[in-house]
Structure formats: C-alpha cells, structure tokens
Amino acid sequence: MSAPVFFVTGTDTDAGKTFVSALLTMRWRAQYWKPIQTGIEDDCGDTATVKKMCETHGYSSEYAAPKFELMKPLCPLEAMEYEPHIDVKLSDFEVPDLYNPERPLIVEGAGGVCVPITKKLETTVDLMKFFINSTKRTFKIVLVARSGLGTLNHTLMTIEHLKLVGLQNFVLGCVLSGKKNEGNSRILRRFGVKILAEIDHCETKNDVQRALAQIPNLEALF
C-alpha cells in the first residue's frame, strides 16, 4: 500500500512551515519536496534548509529539487513578473519519480492556501486539488499556525476556507509553532480544530528531540 502524501501549508508568513516540514520528515521517516521555491536571490531555499536540519539530527532522506525556482522573495505570481519567461502551470507538476511510494512524502507549499501561484490566478488550494486528482495515494493537509496572538483568526479563517472549497475531509490537523499558549490551543479545540502537536522554539539538539516526541506517529493517525 502506498504511503500518504502530506501537504504542509501555513496560516501566514513565518508561521514555521519549513521547520515543521523538517520535523515531519524526520518523525515520519518521510521524503521531502518543495514544488515552488521563491526568494533564491538571497536564500539557500527550503529544500537545503530541511536537508541540513535532517542531516544534523542523523536522518538521511531523499529530496527532490523544486519544479520552479524564482529569484524574488514574493508570492509566485508576483515573482514571475520579474522573470516573465517562467510560466507556472498546474499541469507541470507530478510527484518526482525518485520517490518510493512505500514512504510518506512531505510536500511543502508556497505560503498559505490562498497564495496565487499561476498567471491564471490559481492558488495553493488549486494545487492541492490537482494533487488529489492526479495521485492514487492518500492525500492529507497539515496546517502550520503560530501559537500566539492572532492565530485564532488566521487559523479559523484558513480552515473555513478549506471547508468552503470542499477540502475539509483532507485536513489531518494543525501544528502550533512557537511558545506554547494553552488558551489559544484550548479555544481552537473548542472550534473542532485537531491539534496534532504544539512545537516550542528549538535552539538545541535536545529541543529538537523534544519537539519530535510531540508529533504523533503515523500509526496513531490512521
């Protein structure tokens, strides 16, 4: 049986999506792919970041190169304005051949669910739907949200949007990133949000190991 595909998306910029993607890659013994990368003019990119973090903590995996890499640190639609020869289309994407279907795949999206990624104004949600329709593997969405002030509005709006576009049954749950806030996590649960883990800031290897321990294993989720 093929292992699931987990699409990691965030509630806003710097919510901790790449860090959480690295944790999921390690915890679930998964492989990693970032389909669209922006901002490479002044950054090594998320694939290199995830790979370095995994290797630092003794985990070796497979990492496919992004299908598209754009220079400016902007949403893909705006970044393409600086590189008009690049034209992202949903039909350009497919799970890379190097992946073993018996191992989970972490797919890190570009920004949040409403970020425009094509010149046709298709968004991350449209990319999710494309993957759902083009893969026979189980597809689940992992939402990464800030733990602190503002997260209630951002998280509930994101989940409501996923419901409106018919993706509510694909949402696995939410990972809260940052200093733990019992009030926010309690209220989100009251709204029916499934909290997969609450990941505090990590500065040491021991911190990362504690964070990994917070993430449930796959057998507990399926």
TrEMBL record:
<dbReference type="GO" id="GO:0004141">
    <property type="term" value="F:dethiobiotin synthase activity"/>
</dbReference>
<dbReference type="GO" id="GO:0009102">
    <property type="term" value="P:biotin biosynthetic process"/>
</dbReference>
<dbReference type="GO" id="GO:0005524">
    <property type="term" value="F:ATP binding"/>
</dbReference>
<dbReference type="Pfam" id="PF13500">
    <property type="entry name" value="AAA_26"/>
</dbReference>
<dbReference type="InterPro" id="IPR027417">
    <property type="entry name" value="P-loop_NTPase"/>
</dbReference>
<protein>
    <recommendedName>
        <fullName>Dethiobiotin synthase</fullName>
    </recommendedName>
</protein>
<dbReference type="GO" id="GO:0000287">
    <property type="term" value="F:magnesium ion binding"/>
</dbReference>
<dbReference type="InterPro" id="IPR004472">
    <property type="entry name" value="DTB_synth_BioD"/>
</dbReference>
